[in-house]
Every structure is written in C-alpha cells, then in structure tokens.
Amino acid sequence: MTRIYFNDVVARDGFQIESNFIPTDDKVKLVDALSQCGFAKIEVTSFTSPKAIPMLRDAEEVMGRIQRVSGVEYTVLVPNLRGAERAFESRADEFNLVMSTSETHNLANLRMGREKSFTGLAEVIRYVDGRTPINVSLSTAFGCPMEGDVPQAVVVGFVKRFADLGVRGVSICDTTGMAHPGQVARMANDLQQQFSELQLTFHFHNTRGMGLANVLAAVQSGIIRFDGSLGGLGGCPYAPGASGNISSEDAVHMLDAMGYDTGMNIPMLIHLARELPLIVGHPVPGQVAQAGSTCNLHPAPAYIAELR
After folding, report:
1. Burial class (CB in 10 A: 0-12, 13-18, 19+), 296
2. What DSSP state is assigned to residue 258?
3. Spatial contact of 109 and 238, defined as CB atoms under 8 Å apart
4. Quick check: pTM over 0.85?
5. Per-residue pLDDT tens for 83-126?
6. Rounded CA gap, 147 and 102, in Å?
C-alpha cells in the first residue's frame, strides 16, 4: 500500500483558539512527544503578532527549546515580512503562508482582500528567496460559510500563481468543513494533473462529520499528505460554525486499519490524545482515544463460558 504522510497542527492551529494560555512548558513537552510518533511535519507555532494571537506569544521560546528529531520538519506559520524575519531566527524547516480563496473570508480573517494578501505573500516569497522551503495554505478551498461555493477554477488559479513563484507546496484547506468526498476527488485529480511538481497537502475539518470520508476520497485519488490535529482540536474563529480539524489519531488509525503505510506509532499517538484534555482543560473531539484501537480486544463476560 502507498505511504501516507501526516502533519500535526495541534500546537499552532489547535492551541491558538484556546480560551486559556497553554503554558510554554506544556507546548514544548507535547511537540517533543509528537516528534516521536512518526509525523512528517509538526506545525509548532505562528510568528503572527502576539497582539493578534496572544496564545502563541511564546513562539521564539518554544522553537528554541524543542528537541528536534531527524526526519521531522518543524514548520511555522508566517503572515508577513516581519513574521518571516522572526521565523528565520527560529531555524524553522518550513514557512507556511496563509490566505483564503474566498474574498469575504479573507477580509474577515486577514482584514484585507485576496489580491492584497497575494501581493504581501509574494513579497515574503521573494524575501525568503529559496533559503527556506515555503508552503502556502489556501483556506476555504471547498466553500465559504458566507459566500457559499468557491469555484474550483478559483482555487486552481491561486495554486498556479503560487507555483509560478516557486513555492514547494500548497495545502488545500477545508477550513469550514464544507467539503464532501465527490468534491475532494475532483479537486485532487485536477491539481495532480496540473501540478505534479508540487507537494500537495489536504487539510480537512470534521465540522459536518465528513472529515475521514474526505481523507479517504483524497487518498483514493492519489493524495499522500494530510494535516491533522491531535484530539481534533482547532477551528477557524472567522468561519461561523466551523469546528475542529480532523483528529490525527482517528485518520491515522483508519488508514492503518485499511493497510496503508502511515509510518506512525499509533499506541503512542492515542496515549498523547488521552493526555490532551489535561493540557487544555476540557474534552477533545477525537474518537479513537475514547474507544481505543480496533486491535485492543476485551475479555468476554464470564457467563459466555457457560453458554458455549
């Protein structure tokens, strides 16, 4: 079976919208533990202004303290030139730039129109000048809760513009949990045909319960890279009704059960997911951590022996 690569975003995407600040020690400890699970990438933090995202105001300290593991890329969100300057000092392995394919969502999330966002990100790409690999995450690629459908041609158009600027990868993000498997398959097929040189990653939310179905549709269409969030934490504060990301352990468990090679330590991943509520102070949506792996069998009730 095909090798599938997972990136975990809980330390950035998950923690940034928590109501209580996650202590720096807890962030470092979690990233270090995730580094032992087999992830291809871990999105550690964001170099956005601390005034904009106070929950990640310790970005430099976290990046300076984590224990890096060979084979794992430690990526950070970079919103602008100032963020890129800070990120260089952190020795991040990849810069993740973000904009929305929906004009309304981009205005709500970034306080500017799409073209202004593109111009600003293009400036960052030129400044980086190949010194660090760049990934661009295109939000609301499968729909906007304020505008509705985002035409696939619009998404493909932005992918092409960034590919022409020389980025290494593009993430196609279902920020609002509006994607369905048929739509995912069409997007995956189109992008792979046109951009075989790009590292394509799909990023799903489970807002309407279709997250794992969408992962499967993407895998069956040839996509091999996915974002997930430990415990299913996260969500977009500027997308009404958009709940958390797909749970990393749920998605990895599903594909592993189907025979795909994820390279992941599932028992360790489930253990971390079970500890996550102690860090954030509330239950998390992931399901495998609650039920356990399908490999974990239970003893039959004593009366079964009498019935045999």
Report:
1. exposed
2. T
3. yes
4. yes
5. 999 999 999 999 999 999 999 999 988 899 999 999 999 999 99
6. 7
Whole-angstrom distance, CA of residue 6 vs CA of residue 225: 6
Taking the C-alpha atoms of residue 303 and residue 9, their distance in angstroms, rounded to an integer, is 46
Mind listing the pLDDT tens digit for each residue in 186-205?
999 999 999 999 999 999 99
Q: Which two tokens stand for residue 245?
A: 């990301």
Catalytic residue among 37, 144, 236, 295: 236
Say whether 37 is catalytic: no
Query: Is 229 in contact with 247 (CB distance < 8 Å)?
Result: yes
As a whole number of angstroms, the distance between CA 154 and CA 131 comes to 29
Q: In 3D, which of 162, 230, 148 has the Cα closest to residue 197?
A: 162
Other Cβ atoms within 10 Å of 240 Cβ, number:
10
Distance of CA 202 to the CA centre of its chain: 8
Give the C-alpha separation, 127 to 95, whole Å: 12
Report the candidate in 129, 130, 151 with the shortest Cα–Cα distance to residue 140. 151
- DSSP SS3 for 6: strand
**Distance of alpha carbon 281 from alpha carbon 302, whole angstroms:** 38
Q: Which of 88, 97, 89 is nearest to 132 (CA)?
A: 88
Is residue 289 helix, strand or coil?
Answer: helix
DSSP annotation of 201 reads E
- The end-to-end CA distance of the chain, in Å, is 39
Cβ atoms of residues 61 and 24 within 8 Å: yes
d(CA 187, CA 183): 6
